């Protein structure tokens, strides 16, 4: 595994290409979704700068998200669809980038140190399976390049797992 120091000076596009290749290598040969989400959470938590939480929530009965594998401080265990950033991402079926979570209506404060967030829905054959959620203590931490790179990694987790 490469470390943050190995690519800190790279452009985000190059960084995400390297991170994607590493994610694929970790996913190869493993189909268990929990194992794959656990390893990808650890990869993202250790590779991304200025984040304080990286993990997954699984959608249960199309009505609530339940905490899955993650790295960071303890988190909210259950989130209703339509609530907070994660639940809204599921409801809209789209990635949400929130530059300042305090300005997001209905934001759920699991960690008061989090100031910005990106949430990517994981969709397979039209069905939402859950979300990839990443928080940062830095305001305005995530941008379109992060979205593109992280969506690609979330898609790889879905493609390489038997949900």
End-to-end span in angstroms? 26 Å
CATH topology: Beta-Lactamase
Mean pLDDT: 94
**How would you describe the shape?**
globular
Tell me the β content.
Answer: 25-35%
Instruction: Report Rg.
Output: 15 Å
Number of strands: 6
Task: Characterize the structure shown.
The structure is a single chain. By secondary structure, the protein is an alpha+beta fold. Helices cover 37% and strands 26% of the residues. It contains five helices and six strands. The chain has a six-stranded antiparallel β-sheet, sandwiched between helices. The longest helix has 16 residues, at 12-27. It is globular.
Quick synopsis:
The protein is α+β, with helices and mostly antiparallel strands. It is built from five helices and six strands.
Descriptive key words:
6-stranded antiparallel beta sheet; about 35% helix; about 25% strand; alpha+beta; about 160 residues; 5 helices; Beta-Lactamase
How do the strands and helices of this protein lay out in sequence?
Layout: H1 4-7, H2 12-27, H3 33-47, E1 53-60, E2 64-72, E3 78-80, H4 84-92, E4 96-98, E5 116-124, E6 127-136, H5 144-159
Antiparallel strand pairs: 1-2, 1-6, 2-3, 4-5, 5-6
């Amino acid at each position: 595994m490469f470390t943050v120091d190995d690519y800190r000076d790279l452009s985000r596009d190059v960084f995400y290409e390297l991170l994607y290749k590493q994610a694929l290598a970790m996913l190869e040969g493993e189909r268990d979704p929990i194992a794959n989400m656990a390893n990808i959470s650890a990869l993202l938590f250790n590779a991304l700068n200025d984040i304080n939480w990286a993990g997954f929530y699984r959608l249960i009965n199309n009505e609530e998200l339940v905490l899955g594998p993650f790295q960071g401080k303890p988190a909210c265990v259950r989130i209703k669809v339509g609530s907070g950033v994660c639940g809204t991402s599921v409801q809209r079926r789209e990635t949400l980038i929130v530059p300042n979570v305090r300005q997001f209506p209905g934001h759920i404060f699991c960690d008061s140190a989090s100031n910005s967030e990106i949430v990517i829905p994981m969709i397979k054959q039209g069905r939402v399976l859950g979300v990839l959620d990443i928080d940062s203590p830095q305001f305005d931490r995530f941008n379109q390049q992060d979205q593109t790179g992280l969506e690609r990694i979330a898609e790889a987790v879905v493609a390489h797992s038997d949900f």
